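TASK: fixed-backbone design
INPUT:
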């Protein structure tokens, strides 16, 4: 059985590699292939944030299985992360002005980070949704501009990375740190166990 990560995210690659060292069935880390599954990530009218993020994770896994060309049977993992502030869903900023608006809206407030993981082998598709509460400290305009100037916000949901410089603005977190970074370790490991990867 081949494990395939359907993701272009370097964070997801690192987190899955971390899990691979805990493989109980063999005395060596399991290997996995990586491919980028490009899907339409637009939100559908009326769709809840939870349904949206789970749907995207599933679509990435299923699209990844369609792209996989190997001869072994594959289990493909897809994941998606969004930031939810009240009724507003924040994905990745489209440009710096968008990043500024996102950070201004998050500053001094609490929001939720939702990460969904899906694994599929073509016969069964399993999903998990993890929601984490994150409290941001107040940010001045200068803080926001300085942070955007580092470039870090641009490829991240909500325009920040808790694992990087953005961690300086995170006052408190209640939930899964790895899920905020992009791949919840405990739940992903459980899904991979269910698919007999561990
Ligand atoms: C909130 C937050 C998000 N992120 C990242 C995780 C995801 O990579 C990204 C959200 O975008 P996603 O669309 O979930 O993922 P992606 O486009 O980077 O990768 P792929 O779809 O190919 O798997 O934001 C952080 O790295 N740190 C954080 O603190």
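OUTPUT:
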């Amino acid at each position: 059985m081949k494990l395939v990560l359907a993701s272009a995210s370097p964070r997801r690659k690192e987190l899955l590699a971390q899990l691979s060292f805990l493989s109980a069935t063999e005395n060596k880390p399991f290997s996995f292939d990586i491919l980028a599954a490009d899907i339409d990530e637009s939100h559908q009218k009326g769709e809840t944030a939870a349904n949206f993020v789970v749907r995207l994770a599933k679509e990435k896994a299923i699209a990844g299985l369609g792209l996989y060309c190997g001869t072994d049977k594959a289990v493909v993992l897809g994941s998606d992360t969004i930031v939810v502030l009240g009724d507003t869903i924040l994905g990745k900023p489209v440009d710096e002005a968008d990043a500024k608006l996102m950070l201004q809206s998050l500053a001094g407030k609490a929001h939720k980070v939702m990460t969904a993981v899906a694994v599929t082998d073509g016969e069964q598709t399993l999903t998990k949704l993890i929601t984490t509460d994150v409290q941001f400290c107040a940010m001045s305009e200068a803080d926001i501009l300085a942070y955007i100037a580092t470039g870090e916000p641009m490829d991240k949901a909500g325009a920040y990375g808790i694992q990087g410089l953005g961690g300086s603005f995170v006052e408190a977190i209640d939930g899964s740190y790895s899920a905020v970074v992009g791949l919840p370790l405990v739940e992903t490991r459980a899904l991979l166990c269910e698919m007999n990867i561990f």
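COMMENT: The two ends are 11 Å apart (CA to CA).
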